[in-house]
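re: ur question from the group chat, yeah i did fold both. here u go
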Amino acid sequence: EAADLAARVKAELKKIDARLKLTTDQKDKLKGILEEKWSKMDALDTEYRAKMRDVLTPAQQTEWDKIKSEYRAKMGKAK
């Protein structure tokens, strides 16, 4: 998870830097901001998934897991 977060931050910084030509100081500051953003997004996503599962029946949970797997597979191919 931490490696995934670091990879996302690095990729995003690279895209931003390519267009904006950031200074080293700006890169350092933005890196911290992006790390905070994605950490909070990951935590919110985990909370959301737990709440959603509480509403679903076991059969629905199984189907929901399949849907999420299919979505992840599509997103992986889109990269």
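okk and heres the other one u asked abt
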Amino acid sequence: KSHKFEGPGLRYEVAVAIKTSHIVHVNGPFWCGDWPDLRIARHLLHGKLPRGEFYLADVGYRGCHDPSVTRTELPANEREMFDRLMARHETINRRFKEWDILSQKFRHAEHLHNVVFHAVVVLTQLDIEDGGLVWD
């Protein structure tokens, strides 16, 4: 449920490459509440990762014995880097929300939300590739 609009909301899974900051995976939409983050990741992302590859995740994934790594699983000397990488991802999420169509009630046909979201992702990725900073 979207707390902002007090009604059903949609969520997407977005993965960003650690080395390049490029958006490398988008999955969704999923209904908020019905699909927690870990369930969404298990739905597609886990099957796409090559053996031995992992992704960074927030505390909601802690102890799930999946290819996720959370801050609490890392030694203290690696947590600062984890925090910087997660902040970079949050910057990309913020850039998505700068598109007003994603930061207010969607007033078009529901099936179009996916099209609009993917267009925003592509435009954001093109900006990143053109030198738009993700994080200093």
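fwiw on the second one: Strands lie at 10-16, 23-31, 55-56, 68-69. The chain has a mean pLDDT of 86. idk if thats what u expected
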